Amino acid sequence: MNKPLMNKPLMNNPIMSNPIMNTSMNTPIHRPVNTLRVAGFLDHSVVNGEGLRSVIFLSGCFHNCPGCHNEALQDFNYGETLPIPKLMHRIQKNAPITSGVTLSGGEPFEQVEGLSILLKQLKACNLSVWVYTGYVYEELAADPLRASLLSNIDVLVDGRYIEALRDETLKFRGSSNQRILKLEAGKIAALLHDSTHPLKKSI
Ligand code: SF4
Question: How far is CA 27 from CA 60, 154, 166, 172, in A?
């Protein structure tokens, strides 16, 4: 993934209000159950997946891609810890005019516990879910914990951002190695990008 973060954190005083964070090390922090560490929230985005979407940027990433546009979000302590019900409330408020929800980062799959809860609730509301990840699908599918989340995702945009493959004509992707995968029951059902013609916008 490498989409620029286009808003400020969701709440005020994101750092100082969280007593459990550790700003000296970029390590995942232990959060209360039913929360996520959130770097930002867009209510109405048209550049993070198909249609008008709510977008949540989750904090923390280990991939360290050279040229990352969201470098600040690599820090697991960036942003604020928010209760998932609060996120769901904001998503549902947007739902009448949005096509669904996109989860980006950072690396969403570094917050498996909270991400799992959020994904189940999004699917229970019958919302379309896109997830951007620096992992490739095959890495996620080989990891039992992360693989269990795939069944609640409709579209996975996968792969590290590779600066040498950056192409601004690509829709919803930063570099041409990244794929847009339609998932069904956690399996790849279709490729939504055009792998044979990387300059062609296939969606
Ligand atoms: S996957 Fe790469 S581009 Fe995306 S946030 Fe992590 S380091 Fe940055």
Answer: 8, 29, 28, 28
Paired with 32 in beta bridges are none
Pocket, ligand 1, Cβ cutoff 6 A: 1-2, 61, 63-65, 68, 70, 73-74, 105-107, 134, 160-161
Q: How far apart are CA 31 and CA 173, in angstroms?
A: 30
CA–centroid distance, 96 to ligand 1, in Å, is 31
Spell out, as residue ranges, where the chain has pLDDT lower than 70: 1-25, 29, 195-203
| Domain ranges across the chain | 35-191
The three-class DSSP label of residue 167 is: coil
pLDDT tens track for 3-57:
544 333 333 222 222 323 334 457 776 788 899 999 999 999 999 999 999 999 9
The answer to whether 1 and 174 have CB atoms below 8 angstroms apart is yes
User: Taking the chain, what is the end-to-end CA distance rounded to the nearest angstrom?
Assistant: 17
- Options 3.30.450.20, 3.20.20.70, 3.30.470.20, 3.90.180.10; CATH of 35-191: 3.20.20.70
CA angle 105, 43, 8 (to 5 degrees): 55
